[in-house]
Amino acid sequence: MASLGSLAILFSAFAFYFSTYFVYLGQKKYPISAFVFVFWRFLVGFLVFELFVLFQRHDLPPIQNKKGLYVRSFWNTIAVYFFLWGVEVSGVTKGNILNMTYPAFVALLAPLYVKEKIALRHLLAVLLTISGSFFVIGEGRVLYFSAKDFIGLISGLTAGIAVLSLRDIRQSDSTYQIIRTQFRFGFLFSLVVLVFLGFRQQIFEHVLLPYLFWSGFLGFLGQLLLTYGFRYVSSVQGSVLSSTRIVIAFIFGLILEHRDLPWISHLGAILILCANLLLAMYNKKQESPAAARQGHPSSRSRGQTRRDGVSG
Questions:
Q1: Residues 6+ positions from 153 with CB-CB distance below 8 Å
Q2: How big, in percent rounded to 5, are the helix, strand and coil portions of the chain?
Q3: What is the pLDDT at residue 116?
Q4: CA nearest 38: which of 13, 18, 19?
Q5: CB 165 within 8 A of CB 291
Q6: In this structure, are residues 211 and 26 in contact, taking their beta carbons and an 8 Å threshold?
Q7: How many helices and strands (H and E) does the chain possess?
Q8: CA distance linking residue 208 with residue 30, whole number of Å
Q9: In sequence order, what are the residues at sequence separation of 6 or more whose Cβ sits closer than 8 angstroms to the Cβ of residue 147?
Q10: Averaged pLDDT, 171-183
């Protein structure tokens, strides 16, 4: 099962990347708002889970922490908005790389949630991420700041908050309820946003549907595969495999977008990848050998708090 879990997480990285590639393809031909793509991601997830509930034959586990679920769902939804908005304004490659800064934000903000002192490894990982982000954003220009690229960084920040908000609800509610609630909330929230901003005419426009559907479906599939994979692999394996989205973004950005970023941006991506690996190894040291052997819930929940249930 561990090999299946590893494959699931690896394929989730591909699914998340290609969900953004369909955003790129659609916006290359038509003036589609990124917010419409957000709506379709949550629409697909909402329909799948509601159909599953409709046809299954056993009762669902009751929700224990309703407030925590809605807080988690809110931050997850906001993270998806900034992620796809970042892809729209910065491109697929930059958008994915900057979104993968979220483990550093988890490390930086965790003391506010668990009241612990920040470790030296955490500070080093945050420093690597900040340096790498500036290299990616600047593309070789010293102290260059672009407001549009900071949208991608905000997606990493909000995704980090969404991950941290999992800590309490992982102890009270099932993974199924967490994901189902976040797709329900995201669907209703994104529908209201589209109506308010006047984009509702794009939702079911037939020439846009292939791009909207495949982006939404692949985003949902990535979510599902990531959640499944973390049930069967350690937090270290999962962290390393999910971080391959940085490499995937560079390789396929060169092949499909024909966009070759300067060497300094490649270095920045490597620094962000190293920061993620450093945090993964730190997480490994925190897991007790006995808990790891027995599959103790506390060990699994720590690993899942890092990644499980994140919409890339």
A1: 98, 101, 133, 137
A2: 80, 0, 20
A3: 60
A4: 19
A5: no
A6: yes
A7: 15, 0
A8: 8
A9: none
A10: 84
Between CA 242 and CA 32 the distance in angstroms is 28
CB 282 within 8 Å of CB 230:
no
- Single-letter residue type at 41: R
pLDDT in tens, 206-252: 899 999 999 999 999 998 888 888 777 765 566 677 888 888 888 88
- Rg of the chain taking only CA atoms, in angstroms: 19
Q: Report d(CA 132, CA 46) in Å as an integer.
A: 36
d(CA 52, CA 148): 39
Tell me which amino acid residue 300 is. Answer: R
Among 159, 170, 177, 173, which residue's Cα sits nearest to residue 311?
159
- Tokens coding 299: 């060990």
Q: H or E stretch including 76?
A: helix 66-90
DSSP-based three-state secondary structure for 312: coil
The tens digit of pLDDT for each residue in 11-47 reads 999 999 999 999 999 999 999 999 999 999 999 999 9
Phi, psi (rounded to 5 degrees) for 202: -85, -10
- Continuous segment of H or E residues that includes residue 110: helix 102-114
Residue in this structure with the two tokens 């046809």, named with its chain if needed? 55
Give 77 or 135, the one with higher predicted confidence: 77
Tokens of 132: 């790498």
CA distances from 130 to 7, 31, 67, 70, 305 (A): 30, 32, 32, 30, 22
Other beta carbons within 10 Å of 45: 25
Q: How is the chain split into domains, by residue range?
A: 2-307
Of 175, 154, 291, the closest CA to residue 235 belongs to 291
In this prediction, residue 86 carries a pLDDT of: 93
